[in-house]
Design brief:
It comes from Rhizobium aethiopicum. This protein is α+β, with helices and mostly antiparallel strands. The chain contains 9 helices and 11 strands. It has 3 domains: about 90 residues, no CATH class; about 70 residues; about 100 residues, no CATH class. The longest helix has 30 residues. The chain is extended and about 80 Å long.
């Protein structure tokens, strides 16, 4: 952070460059009350108008500044939490999926990717793997309330009874048959690629299946008549590429694209918006594997 304004009565002297003294610098946005608290806490501090920072002398200055900043942050968090709790008391979320804890909101829902994605966007939310609940601090109530309708709708859709009801409705229908065929096709881990625009192998790229790593492009031609239902627009000029799921390390090392892909692209360099959820999923996937390893 940088100080945007200095107080009128400040002392602008600072240690001379040719006579270095032990100490540390700190800068923060100008606020009269904050500056007063700072001067009371560090009476020997001096403002350096060239560097736009406060200089606190002493060999332990850095540690003392760190403690002061942590105290400020704790005070701000406590104030924000109090405001969030008051907002909940005035306009509460009435839902079986949310309960009020001592230090935060506690959210427990059936698994839903939509719920996970929405809660991850709520500031300071965290997943408790032992209790299998989400914790959301009171200070994040406004954002949680804004996202709650979608969270609750997705949670209700994923209740076991509701999922069974939808499954029963699909039994024996054409929709169920097409869904099974699509699932079987995906399990083959192949993807049609235009012969004149083949992706690199061995590194993550984005496709309609998500981010994958192509391991082999054999030159085998695609028969459009057999796969037209799964890959509309495929012609005889397409080749099969075989893929695998990327690892977390591979996704971390992948540099995001600066521009969005073309509308007709079959594969493309993933954007940061695509990489973030893919990295989270890969990290969770690898953590589950490690947990199962004896």
């Amino acid at each position: 952070m940088t100080e945007t304004k200095s107080p009128a009565a400040q002392d602008e002297t600072s240690p001379r460059d040719d006579e270095p003294k032990p100490g540390a610098e700190v800068s923060f946005p100008y606020d009269r009350m904050t500056v007063e608290q700072f001067r009371n806490r560090f009476p020997r501090a001096r403002w350096n108008d060239v560097r736009k920072a406060w200089f606190v002398p002493g060999r332990t200055a850095s540690r003392r500044i760190g403690r002061w900043l942590a105290e400020l942050e704790a005070e701000a968090d406590a104030h924000a939490d109090a405001k969030g709790r008051d907002a909940f008391a005035f306009d509460p979320i009435d839902s079986p999926y949310l309960e009020l804890g001592k230090a935060s909101f506690r959210i427990r829902t059936p698994y839903s990717k939509t719920v996970v994605d929405e809660l991850r966007e709520v500031p300071f939310s965290r997943w408790d793997g032992d209790l299998r609940i989400w914790h959301v601090p009171f200070r994040s109530y406004e954002e949680l309330r804004r996202r709650w309708p979608e969270i609750e709708t997705a949670a209700r859709r994923n209740e076991p009874e509701e999922r069974r009801r939808r499954a029963d409705e699909r039994k024996g229908t054409e929709r169920e048959m097409r869904s099974r065929l699509r699932a079987a096709e995906r399990k083959r881990r192949r993807y049609p690629l235009p012969a004149e625009d083949l992706p690199p192998t061995g590194r993550p790229v984005a496709t309609s299946y998500g981010i994958v790593v192509f391991t082999e492009i054999t030159g085998e031609l695609v028969d459009p008549a057999l796969v037209a239902d799964f890959y509309p627009g495929v012609t005889e000029d397409y080749l099969w590429g075989y893929w695998r799921v990327p690892t977390f390390d591979e996704l971390v090392r992948t540099w995001p694209a600066k521009t969005p892909p073309r509308r007709d692209a079959e594969w493309w360099q993933p954007t940061i918006e695509e990489l973030r959820p893919a990295r989270r999923a890969a990290r969770s996937r690898e953590a589950r594997k490690q947990a199962k390893t004896p």
